[in-house]
Design brief:
The strands form three sheets. The protein has a five-stranded antiparallel sheet with strand order 4-3-12-11-9, with no helix packed on it. A five-stranded mixed sheet has the order 6-5-7-8-10, with no helix packed on it. Strands 1-2 form a two-stranded antiparallel ribbon. It is 13% helix and 26% strand. The chain is α+β, with helices and mostly antiparallel strands and 218 residues long.
Length: 218
């Protein structure tokens, strides 16, 4: 069994996409590999030598003075400037590193049926993964965009496409559908290759035409 890293659904071996949410299973499986053990012999620091003890004693003249008999001071002063090591300043974080990669979206997105189904029917999209397809009676999974009622000819696969919202970016990916996924009537999307979509773009799933609508959050 292969456990989905997105939703935790237990899938049969050999599947490329999760039966529960449509996410890729290869990424979840790759994250479980155990990290190789570190070679302790390479990371063990060397034991301090006798010379280092003498340097530490010279680097603290105040302690050396206390060790002299009463009323006497050391006959020579040991310069400490050579023993000080300059600590390099840490580089300032770049703008890309400071910006969180998983920042919540500042808009609401939805798909609206414009042709080939219930015209005007809307499907709100959530942050993260949104499975597009039809209800699957075998697994009991309901896609976020369930086009079962808009697909009387069954041209839409049960797990047809995956729409993902990550921060301010929206992508759509065909996940091995029979009749393909199209954006703005361009060539058929290659399965497993996400394409970015924006407000007003037309998405064709089977014989159902949908429009992406994005509204800013006030």
């Amino acid at each position: 069994m292969i456990k989905c890293g997105e939703c935790g659904y237990e899938n049969m071996d050999g599947l490329d996409y999760c039966d529960g949410c449509g996410a890729k299973l290869a990424a979840a499986a790759g994250g479980t590999a155990a990290a190789p053990a570190e070679n302790k012999s390479e990371t063990t620091p060397p034991a301090p030598s006798a010379d280092s003890d003498s340097i530490d004693a010279k680097a603290t003249p105040s302690l050396a003075a206390d060790a002299q008999p009463d009323g006497q001071t050391p006959t020579s002063e040991v310069p400490t400037g050579d023993l000080k090591k300059e600590t390099p300043e840490a580089p300032a974080p770049s703008a890309d590193a400071a910006a969180p990669s998983g920042a919540p979206a500042t808009f609401k997105a939805k798909l609206s049926v414009v042709r080939g189904g219930r015209k005007g029917q809307e499907f709100p999209l959530e942050d993260g993964n949104n499975l597009v397809g039809r209800w699957d009676p075998e697994t009991g999974s309901f896609p976020e965009v369930d086009l079962d009622a808009d697909d009387p000819e069954a041209k839409i696969s049960r797990k047809h496409a995956l729409i993902r919202i990550d921060g301010g970016k929206i992508t759509i990916e065909d996940i091995g559908s029979l009749n393909g996924t199209y954006v703005n009537r361009q060539p058929r999307l290659s399965p497993g290759s996400p394409a970015e979509i924006k407000s007003g773009d037309e998405v064709i799933i089977g014989k159902t035409f949908l429009k992406l609508v994005i509204e800013p959050i006030s």
